[in-house]
Design a protein that fits this description.
The structure holds two protein chains of two kinds. A two-stranded antiparallel ribbon of chain A has the order 1-2. In chain A, strand 1 and strand 2 form a beta hairpin. In chain A, helix 8 crosses helix 10. Chain A is elongated, with a radius of gyration of 22 Å. Helix content of chain A is 70%, strand content 1%. By secondary structure, chain A is an all-alpha fold. Chain B is mainly alpha-helical. In chain B, helix 3 (35-64) runs antiparallel to helix 15, helix 10 (207-233) crosses helix 12 and helix 14 runs antiparallel to helix 15 (305-333). Chain B is flat, with a radius of gyration of 26 Å. Classes of the chains: A mainly alpha, B mainly alpha. Chains A and B meet through helix 2, helix 6, helix 7, helix 10 and helix 12 of A and helix 3, helix 8, helix 9, helix 10 and helix 13 of B.
Chain lengths: 299, 340
């Protein structure tokens, strides 16, 4: 049986939400605002599971008579809600289909990074000493490296693919998880329930996995939600630069990249996928901070 | 380590010069809070990280991948590849090659660019000033866009300006930075035709990439400066100042801004290091700005391993070095800041 924390020593959520920008916005959302945010995410997840329900056209069907139609224009295939690209493919349907890979990479990348970060954070925070110094210095120093260039190097060395992206992206986020979890573990290891579990002869694995982990879990979850948005942005950046996801696979970042040469003639191809990406990241950010403020897990 | 401090001062005089220097270096490293110690430790950490990155690169290139394939044509036979192997000494033990690799790097020999037919380091050194120029102008833009609204919003919290700028900053941080650049190109370049959209051919070329950087990083600076100002404004001395009849403007100008000054400088300094973490390189690509980012991406598209490697290592060394300079700057601004 896991032990729950008796008291929360984090900052008072009320005060935090007043002086932090995100907190102010979360306050503006009101007490029911999160329903809208969750609804948006549910739509995204639904679109990635059953894209055919949402897509108005076959995302890969070319129609050279209907090239570069603006948003709202119609062709023989019917209404193109967000216009068409240089091969006459429907942009809305392509965005719907791209949702799956975009979400998959962002969620998986974050989860892997969180796994590594949580493990390192727990080990460092609980054991302290040399392990701690080594792990923390690694994370700290890594944040001072131009990691984006390192990512480009790794991807071009190993060949860009979704698999390699899921190795590179976690490298960018693990230090954040490690830092947060370490701080919590440092605090918790002084609590009496840890002392009690040591006294009753629990193994280290049990203490870390069954007593420390459940207590940091809420914070990890909140952080995951926010970081999914950041990983989404990183993936979009790498795909935009041509070292991430490769066609014929599609993500929103890749769509922006494909639209770029046509910016002057067909702005919608570049701008609209970016709007969707921006809104998704914003929603994830708001939702994460909303939970943070409400659960009192702010810090 | 603490022992060393006492031994250094009471050490007997017959001692080699070198031993004394080493001892002093060790003391410096051990002395918590001293400026020299902080810088030395930072430098040591930086070198360790660079070494780590270099090792990972070597491991991936030589152990996971096959470096001969970089030079081999696409239709090369096995014999052909084996010949290249012998030619470049790739049939020798890995440890030997690793040592040689480190020695080469320490001599600043990063190999020959396969794409530009010249030493890879030349290409990077040529591109570096452009990136530095862009980051510095971009940081100035970010500071202007972030600090001034941040102070105003923090001082007049919950007013319409605060709400509007909060929303703007959050949006700036949520949209992809390269997309923001493209949006600016569309609005200011294509639609209005005010500014050049790519390259570095005239003075005005810097405006759009720097503005993009400024908006993205200004968003974060804004949030932090706003928080700092808001907190400062709720301190008791502000109430005292109000009760003795100072105007809000005078409170802000004479007390609050001066007290948050060091915090603001710290925030801006951190943001400079952050800039090198990502945004600037994608933005260089969008605006075809001839810096390290554009070079790296071009090199990635051309599979030019040596330029990529040189760019990562030199940019990394540069960031570590500017980190040191920023730390040193804080020590001069505020002597209370000690090593962490």
């Amino acid at each position: 049986m896991s032990v729950t924390v008796a008291k929360r020593t984090g900052t008072d959520p009320g005060r935090t939400s007043q002086h932090r920008v995100w907190g102010r916005l979360v306050d503006m959302l009101g007490s029911r605002g999160w329903i809208l945010l969750v609804l948006f995410l549910v739509l995204l997840v639904a679109a990635s599971i059953v894209p055919d329900v949402f897509a108005t056209h076959d995302h890969d069907a070319q129609n050279l008579r209907a090239r570069l139609l603006g948003p709202g224009e119609s062709s023989s295939e019917g209404l193109h809600l967000l216009g068409t690209d240089s091969l006459g493919r429907d942009l809305f349907s392509r965005m719907v289909v791209g949702t799956r890979l975009t979400l998959f990479i962002a969620v998986m990348g974050t989860l892997i990074g969180a796994g590594v970060g949580v493990l390192f954070g727990l080990l460092g925070g609980y054991f302290g000493g040399r392990t701690d110094r080594l792990l923390m210095r690694l994370g700290e120093a890594q944040t001072a490296m131009p990691m984006f260039l390192v990512a480009i190097l790794l991807l071009s060395l190993l060949g860009p693919s979704v698999g390699i992206l899921l190795v590179v992206l976690p490298c960018l986020v693990w230090p954040i998880f490690a830092r947060v979890v370490r701080a919590e573990a440092l605090r918790l290891r002084e609590e009496t329930f840890i002392e009690a579990s040591i006294a009753t002869g629990c193994s280290t694995t049990t203490i870390l996995g069954r007593h420390l982990l459940p207590n940091v879990a809420p914070r990890i979850l909140v952080l995951c939600v926010v970081e999914i948005g950041h990983v989404m942005l990183s993936e979009a950046g790498l795909s935009f630069l041509g070292v991430g996801v490769q066609p014929p696979d599609t993500t929103w970042g890749l769509l922006i990249s494909e639209g770029r040469p046509l910016l002057a003639v067909a702005w919608w191809l570049t701008i609209l996928p970016g709007v969707l990406l921006g809104i998704s990241v914003l929603v994830l950010n708001l939702l994460g901070r909303y939970w943070e403020a409400r659960s009192g897990a702010a810090g | 380590m603490g022992m060393q401090e006492t031994t250094a001062t009471t050490a007997p005089s017959p001692q080699s010069r070198r031993g004394r220097l080493l001892r002093r270096l060790r003391d410096r490293l051990a002395a918590e809070g001293s400026l020299g110690g902080l810088l030395l430790r930072r430098l040591r950490d930086g070198v360790i990280v660079l070494l780590l990155v270099v090792t990972v690169i070597f491991f991936l290139a030589h152990v996971v991948g096959n470096p001969a394939l970089v030079f081999a044509p696409v239709d090369a036979t096995d014999e052909h590849i084996a010949k290249i192997h012998r030619q470049f000494g790739l049939d020798r033990p890995v440890t030997e090659r690793y040592w040689e690799y480190l020695v080469d790097l320490s001599r600043l020999d990063f190999g020959e660019s396969t794409w530009q037919q010249r030493p890879a380091i030349d290409a990077v050194v040529e591109a570096l000033p452009s990136t530095v120029y862009l980051t510095v102008v971009g940081l100035a833009a970010a500071a202007v866009l972030g600090v001034v609204p941040g102070i105003v919003a923090g001082a007049r919290a919950r007013k319409p300006f605060d709400k509007a700028s909060n929303l703007l900053s959050v949006t700036a941080l949520s949209v992809p930075n390269f997309w923001l650049g493209l949006l600016l190109i569309l609005l200011l370049g294509v639609q209005l035709g005010w500014l050049p959209t790519s390259g570095r051919f005239e003075t005005a070329s810097i405006v759009m990439p720097a503005l993009t950087l400024g908006i993205v990083h200004g968003g974060r600076i804004y949030q932090l400066v706003r928080s700092a100002t808001f907190e400062e404004m709720s301190k008791p001395y502000v109430t005292v100042a109000r009760s003795k009849g100072l105007t809000e403007w005078n409170i802000l100008r004479r007390h609050v801004v001066r007290n948050t000054g060091v915090t603001t400088a710290t925030i801006v300094g951190w943001e400079y290091v952050r800039m090198w973490g990502g945004a600037v390189f994608a933005i260089e690509y969008v605006f075809a700005w001839p810096g390290v980012g554009l070079l790296t991406i071009d090199a990635a598209h051309r599979q030019d391993f040596f330029v990529l490697q040189a760019a990562v290592i030199i940019a990394g060394a540069f960031v570590i070095f500017s980190n040191l300079l920023i730390d040193m700057g804080y020590q001069f601004i505020d002597r209370r800041i000690t090593a962490t």
